[in-house]
Amino acid sequence: MTARLRFALRTAPALAVLALLAGCASVSPDGLRTEVQVLSQGRTAGVHDAALPGADAAHSAEAQAALQRWLGEPLSVDMAVRIALLNNLGLQARLAALGVQDADRVRALTLPNPTFAIGRLTNGHEREIERSLSFGLVDLVTLPWRTRWQTQAVQQATLAAAQDVARLATDARRAWLNAVAAQQVLAAHEQMHEAADTGAELARRMVRVGHWSALQQAREQAALTESRSQLAQARWNAAATREALARTLGLWGDTARFTLAERLPDLPSEPIGAEGIESRALRERLDVRAARLSLDRIADQQGTSGIASVFGDIGVTYQRNTTTERTGAGHSDVQRGWELALPLPLFDWGGAASARARLLTQQSAAQLQDTALNARSEARTRWLAYRTAWDVARQQTYEVVPLRRVIQDETLLRYNGMLASVWDLLAEARASTGAVAQAVQAQRDFWLAEAELQFALTAGSARSVAAPAPLDPPAPAPASAAGH
């Protein structure tokens, strides 16, 4: 057995294994949507069975059928989340980008095609034909490491896509809460405006018969003007929040003519406790997991960065040259051999690449620590906001509103006993309706804080939301209006 044959037999198994690894890389059939779906479980704003849009036409048709069925009913918060995850075009673009990245991963792991070169040289005595087959040796040798690194990079992208899914679900829940609350506040403003309009009309009649002064009428007219301005603002807010909800759900045209639920959900009897929220955030947050995976990948690459920068262009070429005499018997001579191209480290010894890899590892470690620190802080901050909003909403709903109703009922009794004027009754009606509107806004703020808390505990950094300004308390009845 010749030395060449023994070398071929020794290297054949290794080359076969590497070729097998290169052939195992394939693009995910659904663009990694199944992996994103698994990571999103428990992170879609309380909707545990929400589905993501499919990658083919059959899934799109099923999604549209479900969408039409859901829009035929009053839109609940769970349905809003489901519709957003199925129909939001921004999410569909994000998932398609994840599929593109998976395809890039497979392309990066596919060995480059070998290069075949052929040349024909002639002179007066002979003709020479050169044939060569060359390929990059480093790409073949480093395939197992590159496979692991590319897989980790795609896992990071999958975690980021799952975080976008969780963020969209939270945005849909937030938009639904704002739209329903604005609808309830608008109804309260309409009642307040009706009471103010009644008071202004009575004031005009009292002035005509000479029982009131112009000052007293001006006060009632000012209350009506203020009520009219607040009603216009409430109508705009209701329309704007409804449009924001439709945009988040990906609805437009006829599909945007949905019916909202009548009221916000009731407050929970007990708030979520603060025990274990920091450890839960560190354990479940997707951005913490992505930062940890990034550190593992960069640290794994650090040991090979310097060598790769120096010997990254090693190439192997097999040659077979044929030389044929053009005179006489036309004798042919065949030459075979191989060529190894090895870069010489005369100028770049890989020091800069090694330093860069070391600093990247330090940067990634610091980013992981910073992400973990932010996760703990945000968990505490969001819980404090959640608990404060719960206390305020409970007080406004179960203390302030009942007290205003008691005052209104007592005023009505005094009016029936001729101990209070109609102006007292109208003023208390406006105040009671204003308390109801403020209670609705307090409930909305609580549920918004709850959505932000859940996102901060399971997905990532929650974004602060500017809520509409609360209602100003109704103006008290003029002192001169007291009396019957």
Walk me through what this model shows:
This protein is an alpha+beta fold and 484 residues long. It has 12 helices and 4 strands. It has a 4-stranded antiparallel sheet with strand order 1-2-3-4. Helix 5 packs antiparallel against helix 7 (143-208), helix 9 packs across helix 11 (351-416) and helix 11 (351-416) packs antiparallel against helix 12. The chain is elongated and about 135 Å long. Residues 3-12 and 464-484 have low confidence and may be disordered.
Distance N terminus to C terminus? 124 Å
The computed structural class is alpha+beta
Number of helices: 12
**Shape category:** elongated
**Mean pLDDT, all residues:** 78
The proportion of residues in beta strands is 5-15%
> Could you give the count of β-strands?
4
The portion of residues assigned to helices is 55-70%
What is the string of SSEs from the N terminus onward? HHHHHEEHHHHHEEHH
SSE blueprint:
Elements: H1 3-24, H2 33-40, H3 57-71, H4 77-87, H5 89-109, E1 115-122, E2 126-136, H6 137-141, H7 143-208, H8 214-249, H9 277-284, H10 286-311, E3 315-325, E4 332-341, H11 351-416, H12 422-458
Antiparallel strand pairs: 1-2, 2-3, 3-4
Helix pairs in contact: 2-7, 3-4, 4-7, 5-7, 7-8, 7-10, 7-12, 9-11, 10-11, 11-12
